[in-house]
Design goal:
single chain, alpha+beta, 13 strands, about 400 residues, 11 helices, globular
Length: about 400
């Protein structure tokens, strides 16, 4: 029986007051906004394949890699009786939205900093690691950028606050100035983190995935750090740009600059409560195709999804993208996928709520070809559309 806990409200179609001036002259896609996975993914795959042989260098130091972690969100190696995990991630272009919104009187760099930490930590904890230390990478084109005291105060405060939420030590970082490489008016935000897996049974790789596993989605707070290039391209086509009002009276820019969830404590609490978690997938690049990130050939049947958040309805209505394109670009309200034993679904949903998040029993892992089937939208993403883990 499927638990009814936290089912989304009945879907209601929301119509925006748009006019011919608001619609773009032609459909805006992720590719047309400068991000084409067919260009990016082959290079990533080539780098991953090339990196495999370097594990011998780790072995020379007396350690051994967990080969199943290659291609996952974080890399894991064995160090004595414990496992260590590391990751590096970048924010992308969300800070450019904050820059465009500066006239509102806010810098929004507390949000920008928070989301940079969130992208790093949520990838790290997806292999079951507890975050230990995090290092910042803030690169500018001109050191004068660092002279805006309010912006820097918000950046530092937001970064520190996010580290506290994640329970990670901010160990340091690098702040280079790269004239000629980075636009002098912008900053490139990224970072790396290290975590620990004391109980080896908490290691999460696709080797634990199996037929019959149930899938829980956690509701997102918004766009997070993914799909911003497309969202920014759309803003340029709107008469009022980022100041365009949504139905909830928020501006488009405000909706884009919503803080992302951080799941470090939730994952550890699932372990503490003996939830039989088999896999975690952070729904970032590639949208809901990330549900089939694991290597095994399974069909991931999604019976239900969260009601589409207003921000994504607005993006779809004004960009001309269809459902297939939207769900392969954005999280569309689904932030994190938890794959677990059927007997623990109800308890896991309760823990998710106690941690301040909203969970949804979404579907299950079935025998069949590698694909994601989203029944409500009549969408099927076949395995060959995600040629990268």
């Amino acid at each position: 029986m499927i638990p009814t806990y936290h089912r989304p409200n009945k879907f209601v179609l929301m119509v925006y007051e748009t006019n011919s001036n608001m619609k773009p002259n032609k459909k805006i896609t992720y590719s047309s906004s400068g991000v084409n996975y067919s260009d990016i993914d082959p290079i990533k795959k080539l780098a991953q394949n090339s990196a495999q042989s370097t594990a011998l260098n780790l072995k020379k130091s007396g350690f051994s890699e967990i080969s199943a972690s290659r291609g996952e969100s974080a890399y894991v190696w064995q160090q004595g009786n414990i496992l260590m995990a590391s990751v590096i991630e970048g924010l992308g272009t969300k800070n450019l939205v904050a820059d465009a919104m500066k006239k509102s009187g806010k810098t929004y760099y507390d949000v920008v900093a928070h989301d940079t930490v969130a992208t790093i930590i949520n990838d790290l904890v997806s292999v079951g690691a507890k975050p230990l230390s995090l290092h910042a990478y803030w690169a500018v084109g001109d050191s004068k950028w660092l002279g805006d005291k309010q912006r820097m105060k918000d950046l530092i405060t937001g970064w520190k606050s996010a580290c506290d939420i994640a329970g990670v030590s901010w160990g340091g970082g690098e702040t280079p100035a790269y004239a000629g490489i980075i636009n002098p008016e912008t900053i490139d935000l990224a970072g790396s983190a290290v975590g620990i897996i004391k109980n080896k049974t908490n290691l999460l790789t696709d080797k634990k995935l199996k037929t019959g596993d149930k899938i829980i989605f956690i509701k997102s707070n918004g766009i997070n750090a993914n799909g911003l290039s497309l969202a920014r391209a759309l803003a340029k086509k709107l008469p009022a740009g980022y100041n365009t009002k949504l139905k909830n009276k928020k501006t488009y820019g405000e909706a884009l600059l919503t803080k992302s969830n951080i799941y470090a404590n939730l994952v550890q609490n699932l372990f503490k409560n003996k939830i039989d978690v088999h896999y975690l997938s952070n729904i970032t690049g590639h949208g809901l195709r990330k549900v089939m990130r694991g290597r095994p050939n399974f069909t991931y049947l999604i019976d239900r999804i969260f009601t589409t958040p207003e921000l994504f309805k607005f993006i779809q209505d004004t960009s001309g993208l269809n459902d297939y394109e939207m769900y392969q670009t954005f999280n569309m309200g689904q932030d994190y996928a938890i794959f677990l034993s059927a007997k623990h679904v109800e308890k896991a949903l309760q823990i998710i709520e106690k941690n301040g998040f909203t969970g949804l029993y979404a579907g299950e892992v079935q025998k069949g070809p590698k694909q994601v089937v989203i029944k409500e939208k009549n969408i099927i993403y076949k395995g060959d559309t995600l040629d990268l883990r």
